Each structure stands twice: as C-alpha cells, then as structure tokens.
Amino acid sequence: MTDQPGAALTDGDLRDLTRLLARYVEHDLDQFEDWQLQTTHGPVYVTIRRELPSGWPAAAFTQVWPPQDSTAPRAEDASGG
User: Fold this and answer.
1) What is the pLDDT of residues 12-52, one digit of tens each?
2) Which of 20, 23, 76, 80 has its CA 20 to 30 A from that of 13?
3) Which residues, listed in sequence order, are joined to residue 68 by a DSSP beta bridge?
4) Count of beta carbons in the 10 Å neighbourhood of residue 22
5) Phi, psi of 80 (to 5 degrees)
6) Across residues 64-71, what is the average pLDDT?
7) Is the Cβ–Cβ distance between 1 and 7 less than 8 Å?
8) What beta strand segments (E) does the chain contain?
C-alpha cells in the first residue's frame, strides 16, 4: 500500500475504498458532504447526498455497494422479499 495519492488503485484498494465509503455513509453521513481534493490535474469536487440531485435520473449513477459479485445475501433476500 502506498500513501502517495497519485498512485493507481489496485483492485483491492478499490474494494476497500467502496467498503469504507459504504460504512461511512451508513454510520456517519448526516445529510450531505462536499469535499475538494487537490490533484495534479487540478481540484476534484466530490458531493455525497442522501437524495437524488434534482434533474438527475437514478440510472446516471453506478451502484458500487454492495459489490455486484457479492455472495452475501441482500436485504430483500433476507427479509423474504
């Protein structure tokens, strides 16, 4: 693992990132977060919301959690739905 932000993520890093982000939004996100990260290509803006942005279709977003290849039961499977 490297602490250099410019290093490319490994598949394991990306899995860890999505798992930690899922944990963050499950337990720590109130309504929203707006973050700015400086990169060698300029600033990157990240916004996390509990609601769909006005005018955006849900299909515009890629579901990253739970992982699509997950063998864990989904909530609707566990509830019988």
Assistant:
1) 999 999 999 999 999 999 999 999 999 889 999 999 999 99
2) 76
3) none
4) 14
5) 85, 5
6) 80
7) no
8) 32-39, 42-49
